[in-house]
């Protein structure tokens, strides 16, 4: 009986070894399916649709150049504008389809909180290509889920630093943010950072209109009565467009210092509605008019081709989409090389991503061991430019990511409360083009 048990044990061990060997040598697929999502309908599509156009353009060129070691990319798109239930149903369906697959989802922070556990349970590599809520990767550690762009902590800490450098003597501040995960989370980080660095500021209003609201007259009227020194809004897409148009019509943008960390995606559409002097961020450091990349062959060629195809300049969502595609395809190539030229498993791709360094269309980016990318932040001030029909952003300052984010394992909301005013001098901010 002991001999039989011993034989069975040896057999099980050999079976495990052969299974592992097969996993390391799985056949090269005919194609790599990409499950991709963005807003293609609704007010948020003004941000989501350009990202889709950029992805389709980049994938076509990438496939024409040979793909990943001969394997072409095949994207299938999910419209995030159809609502959470339908979105998650479509996500599950795509993630469980037969064949080699990679998921690049999503643009909405509200959706990312829901899909990350699903991707982890299904053991499918998922790139959070846009959603910025820092809580997604801080409240649970994932093996298969990564964010290839910055999170809200980097964006909001840099926003506070730039506000304090630009207008250090303000006394009052109001916020108008969308009422969902991103609007609430970004305000939480901004508020606690501001209170740590300039505790004497009085917050006079916290306004959270519904996501997709068609009218902001209540918020505008309230701001007119309060006349805060500073107005913050981390709104984006059609919501930000509507708010700024209505605020501009009543002179608010000239009466208060506006801080708009996501306004890069709205300036071209809004034109003269945004006056000079508004603080604008880029949710990273991708800006078509960044003088440091004016002569960069890859970036300048992409900006030119994108403008010809869409009639508009690339916004931050476009930059984030491209860096997600470059990071993930680069991880496959890195994993193939580490696997002796054989097609990698999902686990090997995840391991390659976790130690990856890559470049989208701007400055280099490094992935941390918790799956969060470290990407520096670009901020500046709107000004008129005779060559454009909309405001451009000048006086650009770059803030390195390493000074904007907590150590791995520490939650952002706790970390920002410990910041000291000397961060203003120690952030290693650098003027762009100087």
From TrEMBL:
Keywords assigned by UniProt, alphabetized: Signal
Signal peptide: 1-23
Highest rank taxon of the organism: Bacteria
Pfam hit, one: Peripla_BP_6
Record domain Leucine-binding protein: where: 32-375
Keyword Signal: yes
Assigned protein family: Belongs to the leucine-binding protein family.
Record PANTHER family: ABC TRANSPORTER SUBSTRATE-BINDING PROTEIN, LEUCINE-SPECIFIC-BINDING PROTEIN
Protein name: Branched-chain amino acid-binding protein
Source species: Bordetella ansorpii
